[in-house]
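User: Let's play a game. I give you a shape written as tokens, and you guess the letters that built it. Ready? Here's round one.
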């Protein structure tokens, strides 16, 4: 069947056209260093944060800060986001991705440029992601969608993005306060739902080699990420000893991970953890992600009372540098570019 009549993008065609880079193959795939066992990351019950008892709030903040500095990633329970809403969104997500490839490319009720597939900037197979995504700026989800076909989808996405935005703000505030920042300087001042992004990922079944990635190793270019994925698992993170481990999915929980901006702002106290999604053979995998970002002109700076490790930069400068590296090198360099 010609690719434009199918829903999946021509991933295999694109992937097989790329050369393999022997060195990267050795270094970044590092299959020998991959621990196949599933790892339990910390789980934090957020009930304590909203508790009227001050000791409970303090303990919960401490737990979040410990997980953010030791792991950079953790599960949260009692997060306040309705399971029903997550299920409805998942149904809409599956419906969206099952539309014909040509339709997804042209318009699916989302801003132009939201749809992405594979890795157009990849210079070799090791930089290629076997997935497709809608990466949606939330600045205009409030706009009414004139098409009936996508109306429910837009409404559900808007509701979920609002709830995830509230959750991201609560966690970011707790992490800022733990470092002794007055609420007037809290990072959430420069972030809102309208400066943030929502991403829907789809990892189609990968029929070829074990040596592809669903999503290549990366850190997130934001303050904080809230992730909802399915039971398929396959998310891996890089540990301090450079070994990759698989994150064990936890029913009912959401995953929170620290992004580059929080690492810079906290002077490396909180860790932006490198993660990747492994390919899988069989059922398709889906995930939805909220990226807490500031406006492009926001200075990131560093929190008070510590000598800065990174020079001050705006989020816009950071994005520009990342885009430049991705174009020139095929991959992101990120924070090391801003070291003092
Ligand atoms: O799908 C996942 O589990 C991870 C997604 C992710 O890391 C991203 O979209 O940045
Ligand atoms: Fe990510």
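Assistant: Ready! My guess for every position:
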């Amino acid at each position: 069947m010609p690719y434009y009549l199918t829903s999946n993008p021509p991933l295999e065609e694109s992937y097989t056209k790329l050369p393999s880079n022997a060195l990267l193959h050795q270094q970044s795939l590092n299959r020998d260093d991959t621990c196949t066992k599933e790892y339990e990351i910390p789980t934090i019950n957020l009930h304590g944060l909203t508790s009227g008892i001050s000791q409970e709030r303090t303990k919960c903040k401490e737990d979040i800060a410990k997980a953010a500095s030791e792991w950079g990633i953790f599960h949260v329970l009692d997060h306040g986001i309705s399971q029903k809403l997550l299920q409805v969104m998942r149904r809409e997500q599956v419906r969206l991705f099952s539309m014909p490839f040509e339709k997804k490319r042209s318009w699916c009720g989302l801003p132009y440029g939201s749809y992405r597939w594979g890795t157009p900037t990849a210079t070799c197979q090791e930089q290629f992601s076997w997935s497709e995504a809608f990466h949606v700026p939330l600045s205009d989800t409030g706009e009414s969608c004139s098409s009936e076909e996508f109306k429910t989808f837009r409404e559900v996405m808007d509701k979920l993005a609002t709830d995830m935005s509230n959750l991201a703000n609560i966690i970011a505030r707790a992490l800022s306060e733990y470092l002794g920042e007055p609420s007037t300087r809290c990072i959430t001042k420069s972030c809102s739902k309208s400066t943030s992004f929502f991403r829907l990922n789809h990892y189609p079944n990968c029929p070829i080699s074990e040596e592809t990635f669903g999503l290549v190793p990366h850190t997130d270019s934001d303050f904080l990420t809230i992730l909802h994925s399915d039971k398929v698992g396959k998310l891996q993170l890089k540990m301090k000893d450079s070994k990759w481990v698989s994150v064990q999915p936890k029913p009912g929980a959401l995953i929170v991970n620290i992004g580059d901006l929080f690492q810079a702002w906290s002077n490396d106290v909180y860790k932006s953890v490198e993660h990747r999604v492994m390919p899988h053979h069989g059922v398709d995998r889906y995930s939805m992600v909220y990226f807490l970002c500031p406006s492009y002109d926001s200075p990131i700076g560093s929190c008070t009372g510590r000598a800065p490790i990174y020079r001050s930069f705006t989020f816009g400068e950071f994005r520009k540098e990342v885009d430049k590296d991705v174009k020139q090198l095929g991959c992101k360099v990120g924070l090391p570019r801003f070291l003092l």
